[in-house]
Amino acid sequence: MLSTLRRDGSIQSSVVNAGVMAHPSTGDPVVALVAIGGARKLQHLRADPRTTVVARAGWQWVTVEGTAEIIGPDDADPGTDAEGLRLLLRAIFEAAGGTHDDWDTYDRVMREERRTAVLIAPTRIYSNPG
User: Residues in domain Pyridoxamine 5'-phosphate oxidase N-terminal (predicted)?
Assistant: First the structure.
């Protein structure tokens, strides 16, 4: 579950597939996910990058609060060219537990849908005991 802030300060939450991986530039651990180009979550994160991700497995849960960095066709990163973005989107998909039988199709869909990488640098992490 990813929660972002709307312009009026209210919270918008959506279910996402995310994983933990090394930031492509710094190597620091981040929570990473891929969002479709026109998603509200991206609009919210562009306006205010503070976000919270909650993951659950059975009775265990973890919350990660942090700051989002957006890298995609509409959010250029000086260190990430088109090939770098293609590989980053694949890496995030795999970090979230995904596998694919046809990477060419995956890449084409990512381009067509203007898919964007969201990298969340943790500022606070907490979970239930156990």
Answer: 1-77
Confidence of residue 129 (pLDDT cuts 50, 70, 90): confident
What is this structure's pTM?
A: 0.95
Sign of the alpha-carbon torsion through 89, 98, 27, 130: positive
Domain chopping of the chain, boundaries: 2-127
Strand-pair category, 11-14 with 18-22: unpaired
pLDDT digits (tens, 9 = 90+) for 63-86: 999 999 999 999 989 999 999 999
* Residue among 53, 34, 54, 9 nearest 107 (CA): 34
Q: How far is CA 25 from CA 33, 46, 114, in A?
A: 16, 20, 21
Query: 2-127: which CATH topology?
Result: Pnp Oxidase; Chain A (2.30.110)
Quick count: other Cβ atoms within 10 Å of Cβ 57? 7
* pLDDT score at 51: 99
Instruction: Check if the beta carbon of residue 46 is closer than 8 Å to that of residue 100.
Output: no
